[in-house]
Amino acid sequence: MCGEFAHTLRMHLRPLQPIVPSLSSDDDSSRNSDDEEPSRLTPPPKFKISSAPPHKDCLEPLNSKRKHLVGQHILYKWHGYGWCQGIITKWNDNPATVMGSDSAILNFTLQWKDDNSTSKHVLSIDSYNHDTREDTPNHKWIMLQKI
User: Fold this and answer.
1) Does 27 have pLDDT greater than 70?
2) Which of 22, 37, 51, 105 is placed for a possible disulfide with 61 were both Cys, Cβ 3.0 to 4.6 Å?
3) DSSP 52-91
4) What is the pTM of this model?
């Protein structure tokens, strides 16, 4: 009985076969993947991507011009989570507040919209996402503007 059931079951099931899609096209107007534009970031509702990064003075450690960025919104790319919206809530004026093996002075505290958590950051021009690509490496950021 068990052998008969197993045989009947095998007759109704077939092994999964991977489907290999055809990568060729007869359409001359189709684009080569090398020619395709990279996917661009889509800003959250009621925001647009800022046309330029903040002035470097606003990001320098202990420069009082940083307070002009308090209240500004950003997108930050977290490892494992992707792009998240945050708001700069505080600028650091304490030179002893550092981060990482290079002891970089933290410049901002951010509050994250998705989970209402806060974190301290070193936002810099070097880590700014100048090209607005969605597939940029982790730990990049970009300014948002309300519309």
Assistant:
1) no
2) 105
3) SPPPGGGTSTT-GGGGGGTT-EEEEEETTTEEEEEEEEEE
4) 0.71
